[in-house]
Design brief:
With 291 residues, the chain is an alpha/beta fold. The chain has one domain: Glycoside hydrolase/deacetylase (TIM Barrel, Alpha-Beta Barrel). It contains ten helices and nine strands. The strands form two sheets. Strands 1-2-3-4-5-6-9 form a seven-stranded parallel β-barrel, surrounded by five helices. Strands 7-8 form a two-stranded antiparallel ribbon. Strand 3, helix 3 and strand 4 form a beta-alpha-beta unit. Helix 2 packs across helix 3 and helix 3 packs parallel to helix 5.
């Protein structure tokens, strides 16, 4: 069955300022996950910030070779993840290396399902060889935008993940589209807030604008994180307040401010831990005992 969706979703170097110490923002919210995208290099082209980020996050999303990543990069990233004891997830996207998966693409159900399972299989093979498992999945680029706004695409993605494993969590933009898709597929949603991005009042994120978003990215990210953790709200672009459910806070991994953002966010959470880890520790312990 083929279906080309007729929607077009709305798209949306500094150090920590001396007057904003992370310790001044410690608040009572606990057990939130802090995640970032990693392994988004290939060959000699690697992200210099990734390894420095891992001590300050609780889970990572490893690119699986479609929009970015290659076998050696994935393998080395897994070793770093194990060293820092962070939860490991798959970062899936459209097969478009030249544009980092950001190009608009519309696949039929069979092709999108196969693309997702192909990427999960690639990461699973390298993890399984090291005695590890995929705990969650996050989409990247245009696929992330699709599963945030289009129920049909979100359900196709969630059902493909459920075919692979019903124990895997689908992480995506906090909202009803993700929740409905995961409920349909009978998998767990991981409600995410992108702390470095500006939000509309409908819960979608604005397109990235270097002239705006990179100007005060550290200060803006800290402000959003503080408000989110203290109140459960985000102040939107029009100054309205958006109430959000959140399981995981996504920090950027591709700018010089990334490490300071991650450090600051982690300092605000009393007991940061990988997403839903308390619910699945026994299951993964049982898996490990069978090997």
């Amino acid at each position: 069955m083929k279906r080309r969706p007729n929607f077009r979703p709305r798209t949306h170097s500094r150090t920590r300022p001396d007057n904003i110490p992370a310790s001044s923002y410690v608040v009572s919210k606990h057990n939130l996950d802090i995640n970032c995208d990693v392994g988004q290099g290939f060959g000699i082209y690697q992200n210099p910030f990734e390894e420095k980020l891992l001590p300050h996050v609780t889970s990572i999303n490893i690119a699986c070779g479609a929009h970015a990543g290659d076998p050696l990069t994935i393998s080395r990233t897994i070793d770093l993840a194990r060293k820092h004891n962070v939860g490991i997830g798959a970062l899936i996207g459209y097969n478009y290396l030249a544009g980092n998966g950001q190009k608009e693409m519309y696949l039929d159900v069979d092709e999108l399902r196969a693309l997702i399972l192909y990427q999960l299989g690639a990461l699973y093979g390298l993890l399984h060889a090291k005695g590890l498992e995929i705990r969650h999945v996050r989409a990247h680029g245009f696929l992330y935008k699709q599963i945030s706004t289009d129920q049909y695409t979100a359900e196709v993605v969630a059902k493909a993940i459920a075919e692979f494993s019903r124990w895997i969590i689908l992480v995506g933009l906090s909202g009803q589209v993700l929740t409905n898709a995961c409920n349909t597929a009978n998998i767990k949603p991981g409600q995410e807030v992108q702390i470095s991005r500006r939000y509309r009042k409908d819960g979608t994120i604005l397109s990235y604008s270097p002239s705006i978003d990179s100007k005060n990215i550290l200060e803006d990210s800290i402000r959003r994180a503080k408000e989110l953790i203290q109140t459960g709200n985000l102040t939107c672009e029009d100054k309205s307040k958006l109430k959000v459910n959140v399981d995981t806070i996504h920090v950027p991994a591709d700018c010089i401010e990334s490490v300071d953002i991650a450090k600051s966010v982690k300092a605000m959470i009393s007991e940061p831990k990988p997403i839903h880890m308390d619910k699945y520790d026994n299951y993964f312990a049982d898996l490990a005992s069978l090997k």
